[in-house]
Design a protein that fits this description.
By secondary structure, the protein is mostly helical. It contains 2 helices and 2 strands, in the order ααββ. It has a two-stranded antiparallel ribbon. The chain starts with a helix and ends in a 16-residue tail after the last strand.
């Protein structure tokens, strides 16, 4: 399931009409930036009731292009 930032902002502004939309956007940007920085450090992020974010490294694999062989 994908969450689009504009949809998230729209839902937040609907649920919290007392906040200005630009303030909600700043808040959202700060939260997303912190999640991104934490994942870059290799740590895990858990948002209760929403989800858990973590990074996983995969081993490289050898593949081929079926069109060119």
């Amino acid at each position: 399931m994908a969450v689009v930032k504009s949809k998230l902002l729209k839902d937040l502004s609907k649920n919290y009409p007392n906040f200005l939309k630009k303030d909600l956007e700043k808040f959202t940007n700060i939260i997303l930036k912190e999640i991104k920085n934490t994942l870059k450090k290799g740590e895990r992020v858990e948002l209760r009731g929403f989800g858990i974010f973590s990074t996983k490294t995969q081993k490289p694999r050898i593949s081929r292009n079926p069109k060119t062989g």
